[in-house]
Specification:
Layout lengths: L3 H32 L15 H6 L3 H33 L2 H11 L1 H4 L2 H12 L4 H8 L16 H26 L3 H9 L4 H12 L1 H16 L3 H6 L11 H10 L5 H32 L1
GO cellular component, one term: plasma membrane
Membrane topology: Multi-pass membrane protein
Keywords: Cell membrane, Membrane, Transmembrane, Transmembrane helix, Transport
């Protein structure tokens, strides 16, 4: 009976493994193989080795898109999780509205990115609600062509991303709050600790697992952002919102039809996501172990 266990486990794992190989591993292998050719639309291409990868280092468009992607991800990760933490703490301290509040903050998360982009396009247009409110408040100097100005377009898209997923981060932090030992919080209150002291000494350290999950998910999601810049700015103005995913799209479907070079940039993006996410998670896990 004992000898049958490995065979039984293998039989149960086989369907999932087959699906993974078909949907994930095979396309990944094909993409990397394609990046080693000079394939274009209507041309199967020839093997060129690492020529496409050598080109990446000197391609100004790739370097700029990589910088934009990293900056965008950093802003989204920090602000989204900061707002999520504030929302989670507020809901935790208000048990009467906790369930309803948690449901409400998740509403933007349930919306498709394309729909959210269209809604915010209207709000951020020159005659949209945001500029109208600023004018009504006598703050005409603050009005902007938010999505048409290279200085504000990327931050406007980041705002939409944060608006969509701050509630998701809040839900994860709230789950962490619900697992906090009540006796430690009660003891801190009895000792006269202020709200800030309770947060820094008890809540923040014990929320380490929730922080790890939130940082990892928001980092991966923001590095791969595509729908929002595609719909809201199409990578403009002047390339100020062209992330790596947008650049892949342009290289393949933007007239050049360079399947091979697009696959090369996609491989670069994969490496960036894996390296940053793995490093961040390792550092956060180490912090959890210390705590």
């Amino acid at each position: 009976m004992i000898h049958r266990k490995p065979l039984t486990a293998a039989l149960f794992l086989a369907p999932a493994l087959a699906i993974y190989l078909l949907i994930v591993a095979y396309p990944l292998f094909q993409g990397i193989s394609l990046s080693l050719t000079d394939s274009k639309v209507g041309n199967a291409g020839h093997f060129v080795g690492a020529a496409n990868y050598a080109k990446l280092a000197t391609d100004g468009d790739v370097v700029r898109a990589l910088g934009i992607t990293v900056v965008y991800a950093a802003v989204v990760v920090v602000v989204q999780n900061g707002i999520g933490l504030l929302l989670a703490r507020a809901l935790y301290n208000r048990p009467r509205v906790r369930r309803l509040g948690n449901a409400l903050v998740l509403v933007p998360t349930l919306m498709s990115a394309v729909m959210a982009a269209f809604i915010w396009n209207s709000l951020l247009s020159p005659d949209g609600s945001i500029n109208s409110l600023l004018r009504a408040a006598g703050l005409d100097a603050l009005t902007r062509v938010w999505l048409g100005d290279p200085a504000t377009a990327l931050w406007a898209i980041a705002l939409v991303n944060i608006w969509m997923f701050a509630g998701y981060s809040a839900s994860i932090f709230l789950a962490g709050y619900m697992n906090l030992p009540s006796d430690l919080l009660d003891a801190a209150r009895v000792d006269g600790a202020s709200g800030w002291q309770r947060f820094t000494a008890v809540e923040w350290p014990l929320l380490a697992p929730a922080l790890t999950v939130n940082i990892t998910l928001s980092l991966i999601g923001s590095l791969k952002v595509f729908e929002l810049p595609l719909v809201m700015t199409n990578g403009g103005p002047a390339g100020s919102t062209t992330t790596l995913t947008m650049l892949i799209f342009f290289k393949i479907f933007g007239g050049q039809g360079s399947f091979a070079y697009g696959a090369t940039i996609a491989t670069l993006l994969l490496v960036v996501v894996v390296v940053l996410a793995s490093t961040t998670q390792a550092l956060l896990r180490r912090r959890e172990d210390r705590i």
